[in-house]
Design goal:
- The chain is of the alpha/beta class.
- Helices cover 40% and strands 17% of the residues.
- It is built from 15 helices and 15 strands.
- The longest helix has 36 residues.
Length: 592
């Protein structure tokens, strides 16, 4: 494990920042937001953005308000008719509108659907061969992007999702990440989709057991390009101000959305306040951003920011930290946290230092304003604290994607009672310590040797699945070069860790860390390449090589197509490893 050393001055800075934390400003924001339904492009969202701006002005925090045009789909009304019985329903954003008379068709149940009740709305495995052509499918679970796309491609004319509980959860069903472009606009859904609750769903399933059932979907959404506020605070460091950490979360909400994400907005505001107050003690800069268009634009605000400031991000962003749903009711544990492999040791240590608790996490999902993978930026956190598994089980809760595990997530019940002041302050301490350490630690605290270990395991898994038909040797050889270069680089860390940020050796070391991220994050999380966007579906490790797992079950023309794809994939992966190794070795030489 790489050493992460902090000198006494940094320890003093961290203590000062932690002592500065107060619930006064964040809790006032949370209470104010209980009165605001912050739907993107709405008046309430603008009021919320202005509230943040007013607080930043009061604290003297430099900031900018942008007004990008974002492509949104906002649900207005929905219902499901089963015969002459009306069933309450919600449409996910980017469902299509039905004609005034609705869309009528025969309902067909798709059993054993692998997405089931999983909170991971971006990962599923189709398991059913039910013929859905010309039918309206009925599916257990949430109507996330992959299943909606899957059933549309198979010919379904409409889709009904049975949510796990008595409440219906809002969501979004497009696979397009951010605003569409010429590469992906055609992937926008072209079928109406609704979600219903479990009791109504069970009643529908009982009717289907008795024979064919005709249903009618009614959906109404407003869709188009809307100007929305994006607020960004810029707190300049004193030694290397061009380099910065980006910490961010979404301003918009479903209903008043206290656990998702007023608590995150409050956290960001307090971080901006205390880091600005102590900006004379910051080596590098901090940018704090509040996004619009998260819920009804598939991360439209953060994607716009990447498009607008992509070159600056590529040159200077050290890390991005997403803040979504901290400080919620009963959320006292730290597991299921998102972090990239190179950041895991750092994140685990920080949480342990601050809270005394062990933490566990995994590869980030293709979700949660992780709009920066295609730049190649190392990242950690999305959701943070969550309720203990025993509490979740005792309450009979199912998995959801926020609110600390409270099933009020994406419903009208996400109100003030979902926030918890003590949990919020504990999470604020974690964020404060993590940000301070990245900003002020002389060396960027990311260990890419851990990622090299992961790459070897991934290559072994893919190579074993593909057998002798695919030659992975170029990737293995390049990884060996990368490992050697990394060992050389990290051997320098102890001698550099107490030098100032401006030391040429420290700068060369940190430049290498950023270059490693730009190459290795890109190859591990993207297919489309730099400055593009990925679909909102699961991206497997080293995605160019992932089809190797299916090669044994592929025949004929598609087998040759897959083999060709894998040859190109090996080349891309090997080149990324080589490029990263060469840049790292150049840094080692410069450090001396």
């Amino acid at each position: 494990m790489m050493q992460t050393l902090y000198d006494p001055a940094q320890t003093t800075v961290e203590a000062a920042l932690l002592d500065e934390l107060s619930p006064e400003v964040p809790w006032a924001l949370i209470e104010r937001f209980t009165t605001l339904v912050r739907e993107s492009a709405s008046e309430d969202e603008r009021i919320a953005a202005q509230y943040i701006v007013d607080q930043l002005k009061a604290a003297g925090v430099p900031h900018q308000v942008y007004e990008p045009e974002l492509f949104l789909s906002v649900p207005v009304s929905s219902k499901l008719m089963i015969g002459d019985r009306e069933v309450r329903a919600k449409s996910p954003a980017f469902s299509t509108n039905t004609p005034p008379e609705g869309l009528t068709g025969e309902a067909v149940y798709v059993p054993k659907f692998a997405a089931g009740r999983s909170p991971d709305l971006f990962d599923f495995t189709p398991t059913s061969d039910v013929d859905v052509r010309g039918k309206i499918v009925v599916v257990d679970g949430f109507g996330g992007p992959p299943p909606v796309y899957h059933f549309e491609q198979r010919g379904a004319i409409g889709q009904i999702y049975i949510n796990p509980g008595v409440d219906i959860h809002w969501g979004i069903c497009t696979t397009i990440w951010g605003a569409p472009d010429l590469d992906n606009y055609q992937r926008q859904p072209n079928v109406p989709v609704v979600s219903i609750n479990r009791p109504d769903g069970e009643a529908l399933l009982e009717q289907l057991k008795a024979g064919p059932v005709q249903v009618t979907l009614h959906t109404s959404l407003k869709e188009g390009w809307f100007k929305c506020p994006v607020v960004v605070a810029d707190i300049q460091g004193t030694q290397e101000p061009e380099r910065f950490v980006l910490v961010h979360g979404h301003l918009d909400s479903w209903d008043v959305g206290i656990g998702d994400n007023a608590v995150g907005d409050a956290t960001l505001l307090e971080l901006a306040r205390i880091f600005h107050k102590h900006s004379d003690k910051l080596a590098r800069s901090l940018r704090v951003a509040w996004w619009s268009g998260h819920s009804t634009g598939r991360y439209a605000g953060s994607t716009w920011f990447v498009d607008k400031f992509g070159l600056d991000l590529a040159r200077n962003c050290i890390a991005q930290v997403n803040i979504d749903s901290p400080g919620c009711r009963w959320a006292t544990e730290y597991y299921d946290i998102s972090w990239m492999t190179e950041a895991e040791d750092f994140a685990v240590k920080t949480i342990k230092d601050v809270t005394g608790k062990d933490a566990a996490g995994d590869r980030p999902h293709q979700a949660g304003d992780y709009s920066f993978n295609n730049i190649g930026i190392s990242s950690f956190f999305m959701l943070l604290s969550t309720m203990p598994a025993a509490t979740r089980e005792a309450n009979g809760y199912y998995g959801v994607g926020g609110c600390g595990g409270n099933i009020a997530w994406h419903t009208e019940n996400d109100t003030l009672e979902i926030a918890d002041k003590d949990n919020l302050m504990r999470d604020l301490r974690v964020y404060t310590a993590a940000l301070q350490r990245v900003i002020n630690n002389p060396l960027h605290p990311f260990d890419f040797r851990r990622l090299a270990d992961e790459f070897e395991a991934t290559l072994n898994r893919y190579s074993s699945a593909a057998g002798a038909d695919v030659d992975f040797s170029a990737a293995y050889d390049a990884l060996k070069l990368l490992r050697a270069a990394l060992d050389d680089l990290y051997s320098k860390s102890a001698a550099l860790s107490e030098k100032p940020v401006t030391d040429p050796g420290v700068r060369a070391y940190n430049d290498a860390i950023l270059t490693l991220g730009r190459e290795l994050v890109l190859i591990n999380y993207t297919r489309q390449g730099r400055f593009r966007t990925e679909p909102a579906v699961r991206v497997p490790e080293l995605p160019d090589l992932a089809p190797a797992l299916d090669l044994a079950n592929t025949e004929g023309h598609m087998r040759n197509v897959t083999l060709n794809h894998l040859m190109r994939g090996v080349n891309r992966v090997a080149w990324a490893f080589e490029t990263a190794a060469q840049a790292t070795q150049r840094a080692v030489t410069a450090i001396g």
